[in-house]
Amino acid sequence: MKKLLLCLLVFAxxxxxVWSLTPEGKRKLVLIAGQPxxxxxxxxxxxxxxxxxxxxxxxxxxxxxxxEMGWVKDEAVFKDADAVVIYADGGPGNPAVQGxxxxxxxxxxxxxxxxxxxxxxxxxxxxxxxxxxLKWIGGHYENAFSCNPIWEPKFDSLxxxxxxxxxxxxxxxxxxxxxxxxxxxxxxxxxSGKDGMKFIPLLVARPxxxxxxxxxxxxxGPYPHIMAANGxxxxxxxxxxxxxxxxxxxxxGGHFHLNWGNPDFRRTVLNALVWVTKMEVPEGGIASRVExxxxxxxxxxxxxxx
Length: 306
Description:
8 helices
C-alpha cells in the first residue's frame, strides 16, 4: 500500500518537462531586445537587456540567452526554453507578430513556456496580435484605447507575490501605460480568473486627473473615456498563470534607460524574469547592483545626447 501511495504521489506531482532543461540541467530564459529607436537613453533595449542578463548571471540554475535586433539568430534556441521575454518596440512592428513569429510563440505557449513583454512591446494591433496577447499574457496596449503619458505613479501598496519579493514601495518617472485591453473581467482591483487563467495585478496606482487629461506621448489626447475613469486604479504591470501551465507578464515601464539604476524598479523586473521561467524567487527577491558606469555601457549609436 505504501509503495502504491508513493507511486500515486510521484505521478500526481507536477513534473518538469524534459524540454525545459538545458544540457547542463538549467532553466532557460530567452530575452529578446528590439532594434534601436528613440533618442539616446530611451528605448535602449539592447543595453537594458544586457544589464538584466548580467544581473541574473549569478542566479543558480538559470541561463539567459540574448536575442538582438528583434529576434534570435537561430530559433533552435527555443527548443529548451522555459520562457521568452521581448523588450522592444511594438504596434505593427512588434517582433511577436513579424513573419511566422506569432505561430512560433503560440507553439511555445502551448507547451507551457512562459511569455513576457516589456514597455512598447506590450502593444499590438487589435487584429494583429491582440487575440494572442490576451491568451498569452491576459492583456495588451491598444492604440486609442490605452494611453501612454509620462508620469510618476506611486506604487505604495504591493501585493504579496513572488514578483514583489524584496521590493519596497517606490515611485519613478517613466512612460507608464494604462487602461490596457485586458481579458474582460480582469482589472487593477485585485486577482481574478477566467477560463482557467489566473490574473494578478502587480504594480497598481491611481493616475491623478492631470495625467488622465493628457497630454499623452502619442496621440496627445485627451481621450474622453480615459478622463471619465478619474479615480480608478490602473495596473502598469501584471502577471498571469495560464491554463496551459505557462506563466506570462506585461510590464509597461522601461522607456527611460537610467531607471534600471533604481533597485526596486530593477528588482521587480528581475523577479518577474525568474518567476516566468517557473523558478523560485528568493525571499528577498533577486539581488543585483548597477553602477552609473554600467548604465552608460552598450548604448545604441543614436547620435549625441540631448
